[in-house]
Amino acid sequence: QVQLQESGPGLVKPSETLSLTCTVSGGAISRHYWSWIRQPPGKGLEWIGYIYSSGSTVYNPSLESRVTLSVDTSRNQFSLRLSSVTAADTAVYYCARSLMYFDFIYWGQGMLVTVSS
Amino acid sequence: EIVLTQSPGTLSFSPGDRATLSCRASQAVSSDYVAWYQQKPGQAPKLLIYAASSRATGIPDRFSGAGSGTAFTLTISRLESDDFAMYYCQQGGTFGGGTKVEIK
Fold first, then answer.
1. Mean pLDDT of A34-50
2. How far is B104 from chain A (nearest CA, A)?
3. How many whole angstroms separate alpha carbon B3 and alpha carbon B25?
4. Is the previous residue joined to A41 through a cis bond, with omega within 30 degrees of 0?
5. Distance between CA atoms of residues A51 and A40, nearest Å
6. Which of A47, A100, A101 sits opposite B95 (nearest CB)?
7. What is the mean pLDDT of residues A100-105?
8. N or C, which end of chain A is more exposed by having fewer CB within 10 Å?
9. Taking 90 as the threshold, does the pLDDT of residue A101 lie above it?
């Protein structure tokens, strides 16, 4: 059974960079699309972007200028960097794996990241 | 930019009822990338339906998806207590605002 686990700081200061890592177990990271999705407290879901195991990426246009996704196949991990954060970036951040591109079949448990000084 | 509208925001049903949830796209979209998720408080979303009408592994057959173009639906044929939750539709990188299915 594929399992995903987010890790990283739970508190980030405004204007700094949010960095999270997703560790994949129970399956290889190769030949799959891996996404980050976020959910502000009490609100809906927002797709941030996906990365293929080869390293190719597609980002949500609304966040593209601030987002960088990367993958480390040797560690079975992929990562999110979101720069110049504000309070509006406070959310539960999920990592997920797709069946194909956007059908997210496996999810991490989610990690709350708060942007505050 | 595609906008997905799920209305109403809340639907009230009794256990055993049939529930049909609506998702409308602001322009015609490919059914290949339409999915539905169930989310309960404090949990990650769970994939129910992908490619508009295909059930994900392990999803009971009381859940079904249909639609094309700009109009898609998720139907729960007989609501069970475990089905009262939030439901989101998705097309590609866009999610709808969600519909909460609550107990009447």
1. 97
2. 22
3. 6
4. no
5. 22
6. A47
7. 92
8. N
9. no
